[in-house]
Amino acid sequence: MLKGVFVIFLLVALASQGVHAKATKSRRGQDVDDEVEVEKKPAGSVTMKRDLSVGGSMTVGTLDAQNVTAAGNLMVEGEIRALSMAATTANTGYLQTSLLKSPTGTILVKGDLIITSADVDPSVSATAFIAESVTLGGVAQWRLVRHEHFDQEEEVEGWSLMETSSCSAGSKDAFLGGHCKTGDNLATKTFENLPEHTQIKVAARYHFIDNWQGETAFLKLDGEHVWTQGHGPVNPAHGIEMCGSSKFKETKFSAPVEVSQAHTNSMLEVSFGSTSHDENDDPCSRSFGVDDVMIYVK
Ligand SMILES: [Ca+2]
Ligand SMILES: [Ca+2]
Questions:
Q1: pLDDT digit string (tens) for 256-289?
Q2: How many angstroms does the Cα of residue 243 sit away from the middle of ligand 2?
Q3: How many structural domains is the chain composed of?
Q4: How much distance in Å is there from the Cα of 184 to the middle of ligand 2?
Q5: Which ligand is nearest to the CA of 168?
Q6: Which has more pLDDT, 130 or 250?
Q7: C-alpha 288 to ligand 1 mean position (Å)
Q8: What is the DSSP pairing of strand 135-136 with strand 139-140?
Q9: E strand or H helix at 2, and its extent?
């Protein structure tokens, strides 16, 4: 314990004198068992070329270290520069670090979050930004929790309509349903184990394939219609053959779907369909496809 106290007092003393600590004067990995009172005011600058581990709270003006670990709170009124940092809370005017992560899954930034790459090219703004949730300016941001692209048939699961298609033999962009495959006119899946949320957003692309004559495409969430779009009749002279039968050219394809609403349940039933449910309706002359179904929560 005495050694631990010595280290802390050494740091405070060095900090108050504004002297840079030498690596040889600190002992790496030492823990402090007792709570140590330090000055509330920032004491000055601390520069460490090795790791810094503090068992309690620490208050300094500027902190520059390889790695910073604090079991309690960290208060730095100036700047923190570290390769990595761990603390229960950290209050600082400026934090520069190569890794920022939270054991609780939440990082709250009460100020500007600027992510820059180590790359010398200043036009590169970030190499990666991965977060469980992001709040900007006090406003929770949407986060993508599911994305179904249907490009690998073996990964398609849970849909009432399991068949996939692509518009040409060489295309790697497959989608759910398609030419001759939407006879039951409904593609439904219940998404489960959604993370805690208060709002939900569903986005997708809807393909109107072949001979639409004024029927209506729709999306239902938990059994309620939330999005509709009519299509046709199509003037064949103005279409472009994109998919399905070459007898019927397409004039509406990859139509964007986006709906958001209040929602808290961990399960969400998603159904895509069309009103062309006549028993004589031929899915080889009129069909639909759905691609890139994305579920966002916040
Ligand atoms: Ca796809
Ligand atoms: Ca067609």
A1: 999 999 999 999 999 999 998 666 678 898 999 9
A2: 4
A3: 2
A4: 20
A5: 2
A6: 250
A7: 14
A8: antiparallel
A9: helix 2-17
pLDDT in tens, 60-115: 778 787 777 877 777 877 788 877 777 777 777 777 777 666 667 666 666 666 66
> For residue 205, what are the domain limits?
143-297
Q: Tell how far the Cα of 160 is from the centroid of ligand 1, in angstroms.
A: 18
Instruction: Answer yes or no: do 151 and 290 share one domain.
Output: yes
3-class DSSP assignment, residue 159: coil
Neighbours of ion ligand 1 (CB under 5 A): 149-151, 173, 291
Q: Is residue 182 part of a domain?
A: yes
The rounded Å distance from CA 258 to ligand 2 centre is 25
Amino acid making up residue 129 = F
For residues 156 and 280, membership in a common domain is answered with: yes
Look at residues 36, 71, 100 and tell me which one is the last residue of a structural domain: 100
Ligand nearest the Cα atom of residue 153: 1
Is this prediction's pTM over 0.70? Answer: no
Do 175 and 73 fall into the same domain? no
Which of 47, 77, 100 delimits the end of a domain? 100
Q: Per the structure block, which two tokens stand in for 10?
A: 């050494």
Q: What share of the chain is helix, strand, coil (3-state, %, to 5)?
A: 10, 40, 50
How far apart CA 269 and CA 173 sit, in angstroms, is 24
Three-state DSSP state, 82 = strand
Q: By C-alpha distance, which of 151, 169, 187, 155 is closest to 289?
A: 187
Annotate 181-221 with DSSP letters as a single string.
--TT-EEEEEE--PPS-SEEEEEEEEEEEE--SSEEEEEEE
Whether the CB-CB separation of 253 and 207 falls below 8 Å is answered with yes
Residues 95 and 43 placed together within one structural domain of the fold: yes
